[in-house]
Amino acid sequence: MSNEELKSSITGLLPSVAFEEGGEWLNILIEPGDWLSLAQQLRKDEALFFDYLFCLTCIDWKTHLTMVYHLSSTKYRHTIVVKAKLDRNKPEIEAVSPVWRTADFHEREVYEMFGVQFLNHPDLRLLILPDGWEGKNPLRKDFEDPVNMIRL
Amino acid sequence: MYRETEIIKEATPGSNGEAGVFTINVGPQHPATHGVLHLVITLSGETILKVEPHLGYIHRSIEKMCESLTYRQFIYVTSRMDYLSAHINNHACALCVEKGMQIEVPPRAQVIRVLMDELTRIASHELWWGAMAMDLGAFTPFFHAFRERESINDIMEETCGARLTMNYMVPGGVMQDIHPNFQNRVKEFLRLYKRKIHEYDELVTGNIIFQNRMKGIGLLTPEDAVSYGCSGPTARGSGVSSDIRKVLPYEIYDKLEFDEVLETGCDSFARYVVRIREMQQSIRIIEQLIDTIPEGDFQAKTKAVLKLPKGEFYTRVETARGELGVYIVSEGGTTPYRIKFRSPGFSNLSVLDHIARGSKIGDLVAMMGTLDLVIPDIDR
Amino acid sequence: MWSLSHIANEIHTWLSNTFNPTWTLVIEMVLAGVAVIGLFAALGLVLVLMERRVAAWIQIRLGPNRVGPLGLLQSLADTLKLIVKEGLTPDGADKVMFNVAPFIAMIVAMLLMAPIAFAKDFQLWDLNIGVLFVTAVSSIMVISILMAGWSSNNKYSLMGAMRSGAQIVSYELSAGLSIMTIVVLTGSLQVSDIIHSQGNGWWIFKGHLPVWIAFITFMIAVTAETNRAPFDLAEAESELTAGFHTEYSGMKFALFFLAEYINVFIVCAIGATLFLGGWMPLHFGSNNAFNDAMDYIPSSIWFFGKTFCLIFLIMWFRWTFPRLRIDQLLNLEWKYLLPISMINLLLTTAMAILGWHF
C-alpha cells in the first residue's frame, strides 16, 4: 500500500491523527491515549496488517519525550512510524506488548532508560540495569554520571 | 507442551505442583551462555517452567556513548556490539550516515562491502556452528569450524588490519583499498571451503543423536516469530520471509543472484539448516563478485567533518543474526542527537521463554544455540 | 622367562623362604597394594595424556607438546598443579560426605582391579565369582556420585547426581545381561576360566552374531556407566557446568577425574577379557603353527593392547558424538538396549545348549 493509501486508511481508523512530512516512511503523530486502540486496529485490520514491530524506542527532546514505534507488515511490506509525545515529568503510555509480544522487552528497556511508565504492562521491571537504578534514567539528556561518563 | 495456566499453577507455591519446583541461575558465568547472559530458570525436575533473562552484564550504553561521538567516530563503537558480524554493523551505520548525507558510494566500494559482509556472515555462521555443537556436547566441530574461520580472519587481517573488530567501513565507502592478494586468497578459501563443507554434514547434521536432539524441539510458529520480532535465521526457520537483503535490498543485493533460505520445520533443526544453507548462499554471492570487482575509487569524496541534516534516518540491514536497525535522530550537528540500535539478538532472546517452556534443561541449551545469541549484541 | 607371573613367583618363593607364612601374606598384600596404587597413578597419567592426544588428533590439532619430550610430562605437571591447589569445601556443604565421596570413588576403582588378569597367571585375586564381583562393586560407584552431588549443596551438582543415579542404575542392567551371555557360554564366573575357554579362539569370533550384539551392547552400556560422552549427562558441562563435581577443586576433583579414567580402563579390561580373550593370544582352533607364533608375543602385551584398543574406541565416541538428552538416554536403555540384550541372552542360551558355537 502506498503512503497515500495508508494515510487515508489510518485516518479512517483514527480521525484525530496528524501526519508528519519528510522521512523515508509515513510518520503519524498520535495522542498517547489513542495508542492502544489504534495499535490493535493496525494489527488486526486485514488491509493494513502491521504484524511486525521492528523498532520501539524513545527520544528525549528535553521539553518532552517522544515514543517512536516502527511498524511493518510481513504480508504487504509497507511501513509506518508512529510517534506519541509524552509529558516529560509524568510519561505514561499504554503498553502494546499484548499486541506485539516483542514490545515486552523493548518497553522494559525504554522504561529503565527513559522512565516511561507503560500502563498495563505484564512485567514492568528493570531488564538491563542493576537493581536499585529506579528513578535515574541513563538515556535522558540530563543524566549525569561523573564516574562512568566521559565528556569529549 | 505446557499451557500458560498450567505453568502458573505449577510454579505458584501452595498449588498441587509445588513439590520439586525450584529455580536455578544459568549464568552469568556458565559454559553454555557464551558470555554473560543470566537466565533464571524455574524447573520442575528437569522440565522448564519458566525462563527469565536478566541482561546488562556487558551493557556499555553504546547508544549514550554515540551521542557524544561524531559521525565518523561512532561507527567504530558498533564493531563491539555484535562482534561476530562487525563488518555488517559498521556497514549499517555507514549506510545510515550516507542516507542522511546523500553520499553516492562508488561501485567498487559497494562490491567490496558486500564481499566483506558475506565473508563475515560465513565466519559468523562457522563460529555459531562450532559453538552450537559444543553446547550439545560435541567438541570436535568447534575446531573444524575454526579451521575455515581462521582463513577468513586471515583475509580480513590482510585487508582491514584487524581480525575481529575490523572498522573497515566508513561513510562513503571503505577505509582503504583491498590488499592485492585479496582476490586470490578469497578464491583459495572458496576452494578449501567447498572441499570441506561435506564434513559438516557428516560430523553433525546427519548424526542420529544430533537429529533427535534438534527435531521437534523449540517450536516457534510463524505468527509467534513475527510477533516476537524474530528476524534472520531464527524467523526463516519458521518460514517467515525476513531477509532484508531480499525484502528491502541495499547496496547491490538486488542485482545479485541468491536465494532467501526458508525452512518450514519451525524447530531447532530448521533454524540449524537455514544457517548451514545460508553459508552456501554467501559462497554463491562471493563467487559472483570476486572476479568482477569494478575498478575505480574505493571511497567517495566526503568532507572531513560530517554533518547530517536535521531529521530522522533509519536503515535496516541483515546481519548474520538477523535484522539490525540503525535509527539516527539528527539535530543538524556533528554528533547524533539520539541513536538507537535495534539489535537482532535482543528480540530473538525474548522468544526464548516462549519456546523453552515445557522442554528439558538440555534442550534449553540447544535452543539457545540455534537462536545464535551474542551477548554484547543483546546488551549493547 | 621375564614374564610377570615369573617375577611374581620368584618374589613369592623368596618371601616364603625368608619369612613365616603369615608375614609372607602380609608383605605380599602390602606389595599388591603398592602395585595397585602405582598402576592407578600410572594409568591415570597415561590415560589423561592419551585422551588429550586422541582428542587433538580427532580435532586436527597437536595436543600437549610442551612439557617434557613430546609433551609426555603434561599430565604429571597437571597432577602437580592439582595437588598444590586449595581444596575448597563450600560453606553449606555436608562436610563429611563431601570429603569422603571422592575417596569412595577411588576405592571402588581400586577394588575393581582385584579380579583382572593382567597377564598369564598374573592376577591379584582369582575369586570364583570374578565377573559377579565386578558388576557388584562397580555399582557402588553411583553412591559416591550421589554423595558428591547431594553434599555439595548445589542444584547443578544435585541434578547431575540424580541424572547419574538414573543412568548408572539403568545401564547396569544391559551391561550385566551382555556379560551374562559370555558367562552362559563359558559356564563359569571365574575370570581365569573365561580366559582359558578362549584358548581356541576369542568369543567374539566363536560366538557368532549374539556375541557381537552383546559386545556392542556392552560397549554402549559401559560408556554410559562410566559417564563418558555421549552419555556424560552427570557432568554435561554445557548444561550443568560440571555436574556432580562442580564444587570440587584441587586433589578431590583430581580423584574423581582419576576414578573416571580408571573406570574406563577397568570396563575396557573386562570387555577385553570377556569378548577378546584377555591376555589370551589370538588363536584359531587347532592351527598350531599360527597359535605358537602368536604365543611368542607376551601375554601382558596382548592384554594391554586389547584394552587400549577398546579405550581408544570409547575416546573416539566421546570426541565424535553430541550428548543425549536425559529422557532419550533412558529411552535408549529401557526401550531398546534392555529388550535387545534380553532376547540376545535367550539366543545365546539356546546356542550354548545346542552347541552351535565353535
What's this model, at a glance?
The complex is a heterotrimer of chains A (152), B (380) and C (358). With 152 residues, chain A is of the alpha/beta class.
Description:
The complex is a heterotrimer of chains A (152), B (380) and C (358). Helix content of chain A is 22%, strand content 27%. By secondary structure, chain A is an alpha/beta fold. Chain A has a domain at 3-90: NADH:ubiquinone oxidoreductase Nqo5 subunit (Beta Polymerase, domain 2, 2-Layer Sandwich), CATH 3.30.460. In chain A, the strands form two sheets. In chain A, strands 1-2-5-4-3 form a five-stranded mixed β-sheet, with helices on one face. In chain A, strands 6-7 form a two-stranded parallel ribbon. Chain B has 380 residues and is of the alpha+beta class. The model of chain B is unreliable at 1-16 (pLDDT under 50). Chain C has 15 helices and two strands. Chain C has a two-stranded antiparallel ribbon with strand order 1-2. Chains in contact: A-B, B-C. Chains A and B meet through β3 and α3 of A and α9, β6, β7, β8 and α13 of B.
Entry keywords:
A: alpha/beta, Beta Polymerase, domain 2, five-stranded mixed β-sheet, two-stranded parallel ribbon, 3 helices, C: 358 residues, mainly alpha, two-stranded antiparallel sheet, 1% strand, globular
Spatial separation of the terminal alpha carbons of chain B:
33 Å
In quaternary terms, these chains amount to heterotrimer
CATH class of the largest domain in chain B: Mainly Alpha
Greatest interface and its participating residue counts: A-B, 35 and 43 residues
Tell me the β content of chain C.
Answer: under 5%
Number of strands of chain B: 8
Largest sheet of chain C: 2 strands, antiparallel
